[in-house]
Design a protein that fits this description.
The protein is an alpha/beta fold. It is built from 26 helices and 31 strands.
Amino acid sequence: MKIGKILVQGIVQGVGFRPTVYRIANTLNLRGYVRNLGNVVEIILFENEKKVNEFITTLKEKKPPISKINSIELIWIDESEYESDYKSEYPPLKKNTFKILESSDKFSGASVIPPDLAICDSCLEEINDPNNRRYNYPFTACTDCGPRFTVIEDVPYDRDKTTMDDFPLCEDCNEEYTDPLDRRYHGEAICCEICGPSLKLYNHEEKEVKCQDPLKEAVTLLDKGKILAIKGIGGTHLVAKVTDDEPIKTLRKRLNRLNQPFAVMSPDLDTVKTFAEVSLKESKSLLSKERPIVVLKKNEEYDFAESLAPKLHNIGVMLPYSPLHYLLFNYTDEIAYIMTSANIPGEPMMIKNKDILSSLYGIADYYLLHNRKIINRCDDSVIRYRNNELSFIRRSRGYAPEPYDLKNLIQSNKINKDLNVLALGPELDVTFTLQKQGLAYVSQHIGNTNKYKTYEFLQEAIQNMMKITRTNNFDLIACDMHPQFFTSRLANEMGEKFDCDVIPVQHHHAHGAVLAIDNSLDELIFIAADGVGYGEDGSAWGGEIIYTDITNYKRLASLKPQKMPGGDISTKYPARMLASILYNSKRYNENNDELERLLNENYSHYFQHGDMEIKSVLKQIKTNLNVGISTSAGRILDSIAVALNICGERTYEGECSMKLESFAYGAKGNISIKPVFKKVDKRPVLDTNTLLSDIIELIAKGENKNEIAAAAQIAVSEGLAKLAIDGANDMGIDVIGATGGVFYNEAITLATKNYIEKEGFEFIQHKNSCAGDGSISLGQATIASSKMK
């Protein structure tokens, strides 16, 4: 007789997989065992081929709802082989018996750790049922929901390897935990009021507020206009009312976040529809088990405080995802609360109680904290639908660290499955990627690594990911081409530590590789439009037409290079960029006095030192003193925003471009601006000098500024699309993609797509990755490993 050994790989840890196997096996009257092997589920069946295949078919159909099967491997073992190599590992088995065994530390492949998931309907029903022992308990969870990644310390994913080990199970919870027929069987996060974490409320003096119900008292304080820090599953939020300007302005002042929009949480979908437009796809995302923040358009009934998301036509919204969130809304009539990450700007979200109390002193008025440790902090994910197509802005909670399967690249021999690769991302909006055995684990959102605490968080998160994937060394480390990035320096340090090669990867090349991975392609031409990426010529790229076959790339065309007077200061005060672009246009290059007069009369308020600075900037441009060079699409859109007097200072990333999009939203399309093309160093370019000069002329004629804004966005889109089509025709490529932060803009994305498809090319976008820098590390890892295949 042969014995069937089945190895199931994927998201099969901590999702109720073993009890599901147990129930199916008992229904089919099968004899055998099931256990975790740290990273896969191993099933032994003492049955014939027909019954084993019937079991596999049933398992695929009836797998747990939050599990994901990547592969099922069936190995047949002879009885003699079982007796000699396997029998000692398994306890005696009675006839027609199927057993769930304790987890083993043995590994057989790559580990997949499930992400944190929103509370399930069954648990939600329990916390709202006065007759249930978990009524109003804010840490209720089961195998179908709750924290996973944020509480795990090691694998296999068992309670003693999570922070729940600090909370020994009471008798009732232990009965559920040990019953294979219970939905809480080996639900590692399960607990109740008797044995689980608890809440405490503190005031700004770090003293506990004595009250019967800390959560109810916290809501009372919120509704009085107080600002609270509330510790949740993967981090801490700052929470405040949305209907009153005063707490929002206070929060902005305390955080020094002058204009950046705040995301909100609302109790249910029907409530969201009272202030925002919600499509069917957006509804599904809001209600999904991942519960991301979804950027929605404000509707006509929207009446939140103006200071919540100033001068924007949209707002980030999420639904409750933890029991605590649902209970919070049970105590209030408010239709939404601000729910923004509790961190000092640029630093990571706070997770330790002592840090929350000390570092948020003077920011929060009160603190609602619990005593469960968070191992892996995890910010909320953010998505947006542009023209009904999903776009990740931040891929984090609910998604990380679920890996990307690179089997297509392995099958096409682009990469070597056996390489262990670490890629460290750019410098802002950083994630890292750990690539192992054909899987690419992209981390949770890390953030801005030129802040020391975030840099420390990056290193800590790498150590945690190495631990839970059982990775001890690397064959290769990838980083950005920019030599001064902290991530590049860390790559070199780690290269020495692991005695492996370090491969710098050009920023936009990495963008394109991610786009190819997301669409299962080996080559394409793509438009890369963003704020900045270090180019191979040492200048700042950001409006590029590039060909890639993943391993290599070729720059085909770009926006016209422009001077950046003062370098990076032009990104904060884009009126400097406008001055530079107009100075080098045909109209104003021949008449500098007219340009100075234009700037003095219309834009002096956008220069820190007014007319005097304008004179200095124009001299800088003329003499090339402290002047950088950039082809950035972001800088062009910022300059358009300045020209239209929409925005003149960037207080948060992408501010001017986002306000430009909102200003143009709803325009009728009554104006058009024709793109003009030239060549620079034999490279085709879109002439942005002429573009800005045309915009100034339209403003002078008194044309509607909203229409000009819309026309300007379309001109940039169609100009880049035309350059991409020319490149595709020259190279015989029929697929053109779009990547970079500029393509979060709905109008620009649609205009680019329409132009490219009208010319008969296939247009592709990101599907399960970020158009912005949040997925750069995935591209870096793939490119680097393809060079070492």
